[in-house]
Design a protein that fits this description.
Two copies of one chain form a homodimer.
Chain A (H helix, E strand, L loop, with lengths): L19 E7 L5 E6 L5 E7 L11 E5 L8 E11 L2 E10 L2 E12 L9 E6 L14 E9 L2 E10 L5 E11 L2 E2 L4 E4 L11 E11 L2 E8 L7 E8 L11 E2 L14 E12 L5 E10 L15 E6 L1 E2 L5 E2 L7
Chain lengths: 327, 327
C-alpha cells in the first residue's frame, strides 16, 4: 500500500474503512442500515445499528455472494438497500467473470420484513419497459430509486458511444421494484470540464429532499483525485421525467481537498441524525481516499473509505457540502 | 407516386418542388442563395436570385457531384452554404456506397468570392478537436454553423447507443471552417414523446436570432407524418457551450396539419425578406409532404417539397410558426 502523500487531519479519519460507494438508510424504527462495495467486489454486506456512530463497529453480515460464473459473477458494485412499495430490495451492479465489463443493474428482494435476518432472493436484472429499446444495452450501473407523490423513479448510469465511452445518468418511472414503467430519459451528461477528467462520467446518483425540492448529487470524472460531486435540483411539484425541469449546478459541490486529505470524494448517499434537541440533521455518507499516488489500477486499490459529513442548507435552500463538517 | 390523400390547399403549394432539407441564405449584396437535398442524393446544387420569389424558377447549378466510390459516394444530404471567417463553405453529409449508413459531415470550400461561378474544392471530413475522442465516431450529419460575439459554433446530429440508435444534437466551438476547437457538448436529446415516434431523433438544426436571443429549431422523430420542429433558445450573452443555459420548449412549434395538407414539416433554415416599407421580415424555409401514404422507404420518396412561411414574434419575443403564414 502506497501512502506517500497520506496526510492525517482531523477531517480524514474514516467513518468506515475500506468501504466504497457507501449507502446508509434508516428503517421504520429509525435504525441505520449500511451497505457498500467491499474491496474484493465479491459479496453484498449489511450492517445495522441503533445509531449512526454504531455502524462503525457493528457486525457485518454477508447477505449474498457472487455466482461462480455467468451473470452476477464479477464486480459486485455499489449496492443500495431501499424499501420500495413496502418491501426491502437491494439494487446493485454486477458483471460476468467471462465478460468483466458487462455491468448491468440487478435486484435482490428480502422475503421477510427484517433485512438482517430474513432470506434474500434474486430477482434478476432490472427490467426496462416493453417499449424501451435502449436501456441496459451497454455498461450500466449505480441504480438508485426514490418516491415522489406516489410515483417511484429509478436513476442509473449508462455508457454510450463507440470505443471510449461516455457515462450519462438516465431516469425512468418504475412499474414495480424490478421493472421500469417508462422508457429512459437522459437526465445529465458530462457537460463541463470538471466532469470530463480522465473519463467523461456522470454516475453514483443520490437523492436528498429539502423544503419541497428534490436534489440529486452525482459523481463526475474518473475515480481518482479528479472525482467530484455535482448537483441537480427540481421542485417536487414539477415534471420529474422532464430533464429540462431540473437545474444543473455549473460547478461541483464537493471535490478533492489536498490540505484536508480528502481525495476524490464521491458516490454518496444521504441519511439523518437526530440531535439532542430532537431536530434532524441531514448527513451525507461518501467515499474518498487519503492519498492519490496509487500503484496499479485505482479500481483495485482497497482504500476508498466511507466518510460522513453534516449537510448544511444556505439561505436559498441549497445544500452546503464542506469538509469542515465531517465528523 | 401515391398521392391517395393529397389535398390541395392554398397553403401547400410548394415553394420549390422536390427539394428537401432546404437551405437559404443571403450574400453580402442581399441576393438569395439556395441549396437542398435532391431526390437522387447524388449532387450539390446552388441557385441564386435577387429575390426570394426568384429562387423558384432560377437556374440550378451543380457545383459538386458524388464520388464513384469511397467516402462521399452515397447519400449526399442536407447541404448548407455559409460564409465562415469571410469565405464560402458548404457543409453536407455523405456516406460510402460500400457502407451506405456511414454518414459523416464533409466540407467544400469556394476558392473565389462568387459561389455560383468560382471553383469549389473538397476539404474532407469536418475535423473534431484533438482532445475529442467522441465526435463523428458514428452516424453524424446535418451540420450547421453560426457566429456569436466573434466566436463560431457548429451544431450537428450524431447517433449513440447499440442496435437501434438515438440521434442527439451536439455543439462545439470552431477553430476554423473545417475543424472544431472544443470537444462536443450534448445540446439536446429526444426527451419527450413527440421526439420519439418511430425513431428517437433530434436533427436538422437551424439558427435564427431576435432581440438579443438565439433560437435553434430542430426536427424530431422519424421523417414521416410525425416529423415535427422543436425549439431551444439562449441569450446571446450567455454561455453558448453550456447546454443548461439553453431553454428547450416542452412542445413542438411546428407539426403536421392534415387539413392544411402540410405533412411532416421539418429540417428548416431561416432567411429574411425586405418588405415594401423597407422593414425586414423573418422567413422560415422548410420541407414537408402533401401526403403520408408512401410506398416503400419514405427516404426514397422524392416529394418532400420546400415551403416558406413568415415567422411572426409574440410579445415575449418567441417565434410563431403558423402554416397560415405560408406564402
Amino acid at each position: 500500500m502506497n501512502q506517500l502523500n497520506y496526510k492525517k487531519t482531523q477531517y480524514n479519519e474514516p467513518f468506515i474503512s475500506q468501504r466504497a460507494d457507501p449507502y446508509v438508510t434508516r428503517d421504520d424504527e429509525g435504525r441505520y442500515l449500511f451497505t457498500a462495495s467491499v474491496p474484493a467486489y465479491d459479496e453484498i454486506i449489511l450492517r445495522r445499528s441503533e445509531t449512526l456512530d454504531g455502524l462503525k463497529d457493528s457486525a457485518e453480515k454477508t447477505i449474498w455472494k457472487k455466482h461462480d460464473k455467468g451473470i452476477m459473477s464479477q464486480h459486485i458494485w455499489a449496492p443500495e438497500i431501499h424499501k420500495v412499495f413496502g418491501e426491502w430490495y437491494i439494487y446493485f451492479a454486477a458483471s460476468d467473470v467471462d465478460d468483466i465489463w458487462a455491468l448491468r443493474p440487478y435486484v435482490l428482494h428480502c422475503k421477510g420484513s427484517d433485512p438482517m435476518t430474513d432470506e434474500w432472493e434474486e430477482c434478476g436484472q432490472m427490467q426496462r419497459c416493453d417499449e424501451d429499446e435502449f436501456s441496459f444495452n451497454d455498461f450500466s450501473l449505480d441504480m438508485t430509486v426514490f418516491e415522489n407523490k406516489g410515483h417511484w423513479y429509478a436513476i442509473w448510469a449508462e455508457k454510450v458511444n463507440i470505443g471510449k465511452k461516455i457515462s450519462n445518468l438516465y431516469i425512468a418511472e418504475m412499474e414495480s421494484a424490478t421493472k421500469l414503467k417508462t422508457p429512459q430519459t437522459l437526465l445529465t451528461a458530462p457537460d463541463f470540464d470538471w466532469e470530463r477528467i480522465g473519463f467523461w462520467v456522470n454516475e453514483g446518483p443520490g437523492i436528498i429532499r429539502h423544503n419541497g425540492k428534490i436534489f440529486m448529487t452525482y459523481s463526475a470524472s474518473s475515480t481518482g483525485v479528479c472525482y467530484a460531486v455535482g448537483l441537480l435540483s427540481i421542485s417536487e411539484d414539477d415534471e420529474i421525467l422532464n430533464p429540462h425541469a431540473w437545474t444543473k449546478s455549473r460547478l461541483p459541490v464537493l471535490s478533492t481537498d489536498m490540505n484536508m486529505g480528502i481525495l476524490g470524494p464521491g458516490h454518496n448517499s444521504f441519511t439523518t441524525i437526530t440531535e439532542n434537541d430532537g431536530s434532524e440533521t441531514d448527513v451525507v455518507i461518501y467515499h474518498a481516499r487519503q492519498y492519490d499516488e496509487i500503484e496499479g489500477d485505482p479500481l483495485y486499490d482497497p482504500n476508498r473509505h466511507a466518510y460522513r459529513m453534516k449537510v448544511l442548507w444556505d439561505k436559498y435552500g441549497c445544500p452546503i457540502f464542506d469538509i469542515h463538517n465531517n465528523f
